[in-house]
Amino acid sequence: MTFPDGWTRGAHTFDGVSHPTHRRGTGPGVIVVHEIPGITPAVAAFAEEVVDAGHTVVMPSLFGTDGAGMTVGSTARALRQVCVSREFTKLRTGVTAPVADWLRSLARELHAELGGPGVGALGMCFTGGFALAMMVDDSVAAPVLCQPSAPFAVTPSRSRDLNLSPADLDVVKGRCAAGQQVLGLKFRSDPAVGKRFETLTAEVGDAFIRVELDGRGHSTVTEQRSQEAVDAVLGFFRERLRPG
């Protein structure tokens, strides 16, 4: 279990909460939020692709063991960690996960340092909806939702829920009405995403860009990496984050 070379380890603290971070690259900022079980080699490899595309990437480490692979054991340990943490919501609907405030603070800090139109924010699976919550802050100019899967889609209402409070959803809708776009990616047959893409289309219309992939899979840019998905993400960041 080793973390890739070339990443600078740091930390970010907001409102008394601190999480480690890993940073690499130059150019417009992008925050890559890992999936369960953590910053796996596949997550780090995708982040390297974003770096190579000309971005400063910051990966916060919210749970799990950095560098550990995706196994039954690592997934079970991360789920236990998530389930006892007050920073995350698992089943509640109509609420924003508390960790969103910490992530927005990280985005503001990175944007203040790097300037430009704003920063990108990408979440995956359990953290997929976090990118939507982050765009409540004006510092986030390119939110990307990879297979958003929280709250867990165990009932119809939960499968439609965006992991946002009504007030935060109103801000998202206002920003989209003013020209902001949101990119979402999923495998077409993935049950974990539920009906969230339909909810987003209903709430923000054409501002939601849907990329739905054929075939069986879940992790669009990592474990079942799709070149179509990666190209869509990098193109979205290029269009939204580079002035002019």
Task: Note down, in words, how this protein is organized.
This protein has 244 residues and is α/β, with parallel strands linked by helices. The protein has one domain (8-241): Rossmann fold (3-Layer(aba) Sandwich), CATH 3.40.50.1820. 36% of the residues lie in helices and 20% in strands. The protein contains eight helices and eight strands. It has an eight-stranded mixed sheet, sandwiched between helices. α7 links the parallel β7 (182-187) and β8 (208-213). It is globular and about 45 Å long. The N and C termini lie far apart (42 Å).
Q: Output the helix-strand order.
A: EEEHEHHEHEHHEHEH
Query: In which range does the helix fraction lie?
Result: 25-40%
Specify the CATH homologous superfamily. Alpha/Beta hydrolase fold, catalytic domain
* Beta-strand share of residues: 15-25%
CATH topology: Rossmann fold
Termini Cα gap: 42 Å
Radius of gyration: 16 Å
Quickly give the structural class: alpha/beta
The CATH architecture designation is 3-Layer(aba) Sandwich
Low-confidence stretches: none
Arithmetic mean pLDDT: 94
Largest sheet: 8 strands, mixed
Strand order of the largest sheet: 1-2-4-3-5-6-7-8
Q: Can you tell me the number of structural domains? A: 1
- Number of E strands: 8
CATH uppermost class = Alpha Beta
Broad shape:
globular
The helix tally amounts to: 8
